[in-house]
């Protein structure tokens, strides 16, 4: 690794930040919930169960592992994959 390498994370120039348009309309809370419900329904069954157990019920990877009868690491991986899929499906809602 070279020491003169610039850091990967750099602040964006102000003109780029200003060029990004603010969202025109704010999505209502019920619409967000409907979109989340549809995104959850579109997940593969194992990822959906892992996400709901680990994050929806706040049981973490252990709860997902118990729900799916898997090793904790495997259930955690399914939950992380499911969250990535949810983030992608709902990406347009992020500020």
Describe the structure.
The chain has 95 residues and is an all-alpha fold. The protein has a domain at 35-93: Arc Repressor Mutant, subunit A, CATH 1.10.10. Helices cover 62% and strands 0% of the residues. It has 5 helices and no strands. It has helices spanning 14-19, 29-42, 45-56, 60-68, 72-89. The protein is flat, with a radius of gyration of 18 Å. The two termini are 35 Å apart. The mean pLDDT is 83.
Number of strands: 0
What is the general shape?
flat
CATH topology of the domain at 35-93: Arc Repressor Mutant, subunit A
Provide the low-confidence segments as ranges. none
Alpha-carbon Rg, integer:
18 Å
Average pLDDT reading: 83
Largest sheet: none
Distance between the termini: 35 Å
**Number of helices, counting only DSSP H or I runs of 4 residues or more:** 5
Helix fraction? 55-70%
CATH architecture field of the domain at 35-93? Orthogonal Bundle
CATH class of the domain at 35-93: Mainly Alpha
Succession of helices and strands: HHHHH
Could you state the oligomeric state of the chains shown? single chain
Category from helices, strands and their pairing: mainly alpha
């Amino acid at each position: 690794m070279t020491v003169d390498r610039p850091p990967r994370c750099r602040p964006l120039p102000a003109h780029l930040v200003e060029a990004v348009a603010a969202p025109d309309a704010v999505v209502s809370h019920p619409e967000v919930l409907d979109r989340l419900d549809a995104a959850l329904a579109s997940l593969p069954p194992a990822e959906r169960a892992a996400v709901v157990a680990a994050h929806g019920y706040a049981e973490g990877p252990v709860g997902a592992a118990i729900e799916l009868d898997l090793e904790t690491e495997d259930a955690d991986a399914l939950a992380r994959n499911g969250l990535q899929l949810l983030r992608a499906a709902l990406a347009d809602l992020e500020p």
